[in-house]
Structure formats: structure tokens, C-alpha cells
Specification:
Length: 138
């Protein structure tokens, strides 16, 4: 039976409620105070799933195709773009790599951009999964 998480506005508890079917969600009651003034919380498992779906949607070969050349300048431009799009989501460091390349440092990540990108996607996925494991270890 699906469990939905709510925040009860009356007693301010976060509560889990068994709901027989989705249509009955609006009839859910707080098990602590019987209030129906509940705000549904998005399940963490669902959030992790959608984060991983977004990661799956990253088309690695297309992203690598946007890399115009093997030189440092091209890498800096590419890493800057990748940083704008993915650093917030992946917790990656593309902007930092772009800064380094712009500053004349030659980041080792430049030599295998594909590995650099795949590694960061994998790491973000591992972190998401570790996050969802927390739900079961209470
Ligand atoms: Zn309550």
C-alpha cells in the first residue's frame, strides 16, 4: 500500500499516511491530530529517481560534440558551458576547470573530456543513491 508523506499544518508534524489510492490522498488525515489540513511532501525516493532520470538524459556524445577542439581554449569554452548547465545539479566542478584553463593552467581533465564527464555523472548518481539509502536506514 502506498505511503504518502505530509506536513500537518495543525500540529506541524511530518507524518506518513497509508493511502489506499491516489484519489483518496485529499482525504488523508494526520494520525497525530486528525486534521485534514495536510500538505503533501514529495517523497525523497521520487526525488532521487527524477534526479537520476535527468542524469540519464545527458547525452554524453552530444555534449562531447560541442567540444570544438583539443586545445586549451576550446576546453575552457566547453567546460564553461558545461558548468553553467550541470554544476548546480551534479555538484561538478566544470566552472572551476574552465577558470583554470582560462588562467593558463592546463587541467589534467582536458586530456580525456569523456572520462571527465562520465565520471562526474557517475559520481552524482552514486550520491543520489546514497541519499535514497538513508530512507531505509532510520
Ligand atoms: Zn497533525
Amino acid at each position: 500500500m502506498p505511503i504518502y508523506s505530509f506536513n500537518c499544518k495543525s500540529c506541524e508534524r511530518n507524518v506518513d499516511v497509508f493511502v489506499r489510492n491516489r484519489a483518496k490522498v485529499s482525504e488523508a488525515k494526520c494520525p497525530a491530530c486528525d486534521s485534514q489540513d495536510l500538505r503533501q511532501l514529495v517523497a525523497r525516493v521520487a526525488r532521487v529517481r527524477s534526479a537520476n532520470e535527468r542524469l540519464d538524459e545527458i547525452d554524453v556524445s552530444a555534449e562531447l560534440g560541442a567540444l570544438e577542439g583539443k586545445d586549451q581554449g576550446s576546453f575552457a569554452k566547453w567546460a564553461r558551458k558545461m558548468g553553467d548547465r550541470f554544476d548546480g545539479e551534479l555538484g561538478s566542478d566544470f566552472s572551476e576547470l574552465a577558470d583554470k584553463a582560462d588562467a593558463g593552467e592546463d587541467p589534467v581533465e582536458r586530456f580525456d573530456a569523456e572520462h571527465t564527464l562520465r565520471y562526474r555523472i557517475g559520481k552524482a548518481r552514486d550520491e543520489n543513491n546514497a541519499d535514497s539509502m538513508d530512507d531505509y536506514s532510520i
